[in-house]
């Protein structure tokens, strides 16, 4: 081969490498502008949702001054607490509208080669501009409409809690079925026993600590009722699960016990300061580093809960596909955005204590008697849904046997 031919080949290879590099760079830019991996898109939406949460918190705690200039759009009449509450609701309304638009434009998407998949997974510049516009738009909406949205947000937040509850129970049930499957039953037997035992021990320790922390006097009858009833519900779930006709094992009631004990603890923690039965709440009235850390952890937990629930659309499908085709979407886009839309209402309720007329102190979240009772009802509902999932197959089977002549 001649020297000239070698030089031509090297020049051609160099040009091809540069072209490939340019193509990769342009492809990455185009992916950001137009189309991106749907799995990566989840995190972008999660960051958007986190930004909306932070903006709502800032509007509640630090935007009283700027909101005074907008007093012509509300009926607060100079009350700072009202302006903070309305600021949260207005930010929540903008976030809700954004995700409802995404829900309506992506619901029913089933294939990756559809235009709606491109809209869900890309066009970030357009969607960021839309989110910014919707963030400012609610601040020019009349106060009457904002108050109406606040009432509707109670129901939307309740829908979010119900979706999250079903998602948690479905995950616990799936984990138990996976461990008891023929493929993993022998390998996971010891692990299941250890995990179930650990879950029950943590439940008992949590209940004992709640008695120590939140029942300092015999007159704390409400807290005694909450904690004792949680213990009764734990025993009820275990008894039903171990019934010979159900035979669901120790693992599911143990994990469900952890869930309801945690909800009970959150409910009692939400009790407002001022009473002698919640010394932890009285200690948290001071804005110290522990209060700030607790607030940040609660905020991040809310975003993570919304994110994890949004991708769990399989638990709401009657016909579940074990294997996805190569061109199938990896999760339900419409369900994902619907969960985020209801999550926007949920974070508004947490930041205002589920009460549009309830003043909230700085660096606090989900505090007030309304928040307490919402948590308690959520705990009881969780037990009812779990027991129904255990007993429904038996009732359905007995009904079918009764229909046979």
In short:
The protein contains 14 helices and no strands.
Description:
The protein has one domain (36-396). Residues 1-9 and 11-34 have low confidence and may be disordered. Helices cover 73% and strands 0% of the residues. By secondary structure, the chain is mainly α. Helix 7 (143-180) packs antiparallel against helix 10 (251-269), helix 7 crosses helix 13 (333-352) and helix 9 runs parallel beside helix 14. The termini are far apart. It has 14 helices and no strands. The radius of gyration is 26 Å and the shape is globular.
List keywords for this structure.
disordered N terminus; mainly alpha; 405 residues
The percentage helix is over 70%
For the record, the count of structural domains works out to 1
What is the N-to-C succession of helices and strands? HHHHHHHHHHHHHH
Instruction: Tell me the structural class.
Output: mainly alpha
What fraction of the residues are assigned to beta strands by DSSP? Answer: under 5%
Through-space gap between termini? 91 Å
Number of helices: 14
Radius of gyration over all CA atoms, rounded:
26 Å
Mean pLDDT: 79
Shape: globular
SS elements, strand count: 0
Uncertain regions: pLDDT < 50 for 5+ in a row? Answer: 1-9, 11-34
Sheet with the most strands, sense and barrel status: none
């Amino acid at each position: 081969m001649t020297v000239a031919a070698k030089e031509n080949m090297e020049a051609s290879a160099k040009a091809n490498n540069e072209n490939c590099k340019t193509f990769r760079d342009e492809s990455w830019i185009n992916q950001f502008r137009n189309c991106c991996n749907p799995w990566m898109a989840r995190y972008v939406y999660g960051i958007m949702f986190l930004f909306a949460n932070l903006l709502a918190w800032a509007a509640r705690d630090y935007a009283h001054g700027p909101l005074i200039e907008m007093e012509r759009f509300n009926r607060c009449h100079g009350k700072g607490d009202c302006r903070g509450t309305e600021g949260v609701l207005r930010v929540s309304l903008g976030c809700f509208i954004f995700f409802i638009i995404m829900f309506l434009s992506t619901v029913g998407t089933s294939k990756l080669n559809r235009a709606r998949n491109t809209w869900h997974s890309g066009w970030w510049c357009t969607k960021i501009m839309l989110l910014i516009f919707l963030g400012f738009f609610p601040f020019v909406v009349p106060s009457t409409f904002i108050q109406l949205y606040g009432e509707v947000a109670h129901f939307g937040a309740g829908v979010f809690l119900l979706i999250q509850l079903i998602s948690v129970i479905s995950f616990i049930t799936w984990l138990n079925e996976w461990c008891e499957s023929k493929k993993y039953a022998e390998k996971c037997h010891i692990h299941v026993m250890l995990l179930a035992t650990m879950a029950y021990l943590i439940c008992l320790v949590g209940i004992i600590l709640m008695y120590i922390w939140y029942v300092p006097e015999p007159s704390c009858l409400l807290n005694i009722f909450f904690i004792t009833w949680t213990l009764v519900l734990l025993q009820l779930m275990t008894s039903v699960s171990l019934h010979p006709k159900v035979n669901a094992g120790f693992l599911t009631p143990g994990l469900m016990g952890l869930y309801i004990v945690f909800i009970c603890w959150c409910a009692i923690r939400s009790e407002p300061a001022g009473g002698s039965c919640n010394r932890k709440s009285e200690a948290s009235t001071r804005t110290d580093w522990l209060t700030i850390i607790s607030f940040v952890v609660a905020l991040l937990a809310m975003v993570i809960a919304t994110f994890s629930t949004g991708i769990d659309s399989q638990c709401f499908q009657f016909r579940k596909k074990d294997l996805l085709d190569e061109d199938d979407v990896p999760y339900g886009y419409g369900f994902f955005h619907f969960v985020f839309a209801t999550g926007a209402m949920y974070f508004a309720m947490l930041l205002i204590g589920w009460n549009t007329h309830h003043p909230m102190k700085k660096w606090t979240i989900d505090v007030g008697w309304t928040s307490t009772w919402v948590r308690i009802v959520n705990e009881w509902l969780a037990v009812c849904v779990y027991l129904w999932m255990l007993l429904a197959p038996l009732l359905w089977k007995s009904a079918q046997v009764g229909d046979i002549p």
